[in-house]
Structures are given as C-alpha cells and as structure tokens.
Amino acid sequence: EFSMWAISASPLVVTTPLVRCEVTGCKPYLSDLQKEILFNKEVLAINQDVTPQGRPVVNATATTAAVWARTLSDSSVAVALFNPNDVPAAGNFTLSTLKLNSPTAAVRDLWAHADLPPMNASSVFRQTVPPHGTTVLRVHPN
Prior knowledge:
Blueprint: H1 2-7, E1 19-22, E2 25-28, H2 32-38, H3 41-48, E3 55-58, E4 66-71, E5 77-82, E6 89-93, E7 104-109, E8 114-120, E9 125-129, E10 134-141
Antiparallel strand pairs: 1-2, 3-4, 4-5, 5-10, 6-9, 7-8, 7-10
C-alpha cells in the first residue's frame, strides 16, 4: 500500500498503534518493519515530490504486473510494479514505456536501497513481483 500511496502522491496517514502497552504502562513503539516502511527516505521523496501523481502506463493481466510511472522534478521517473494477482507476475517495461528519450538510464530499487543494472534504449527491465506485492524503482536518464 505505502508504495502505491507514494507514487500516487497521496497523503500519508499512519493508522497503526505507535505505542506498546504492558502492565507497567505504555511506551512509544515501532516495529522494525514499521520503521523500514515509515522512514524510507527514498520512497518518501517520491511521495513528497511536487510533480503530478503517477499513472498506470501498463495495465495488469493475469500474468503481468501493472506498471505505474511518475515523472519527478529532477527528470527521473518513479516506477511502481504492482501485482494484484494471487500468483507471482512479471513486471516489464522499457525506457520508451516511461517516455524517456535517453540512450541509457540508471535504475535503483528503493526498498532494497540497491542500484540495479543500467538500462539502454533497447533493453527491457524484467522483474518478478510477488503476489500482491509492489516494487518501487527510480529510473534516472543519463
């Protein structure tokens, strides 16, 4: 959900308990997973960019993930590969799918905090997206 809220430029609202109560009282608390999600600066930057919300550029099918794209203020493109299916799905796109007229582009996985192999004008980015999962990337034209 958080990934799609980010690419959609939606308001972010936390609706999870932020305290842990025990016999001795209540203390502020966030799980490691909550921290990973709520404090991911790269994904938050997508959400907070001043550009219009993202949009689907490839619709999902029974075997493929939807591809959403949002052009950001630095000319990079945020990409969300969203799988609404109950089985793994292929998330595929090209630079032209993203309307990037660049001979090459750097690709970064924002949840893994990892640079991926660069793309060129003829390459296809391919990644398997788990059931009901989302991958968020930032594609920087070179």
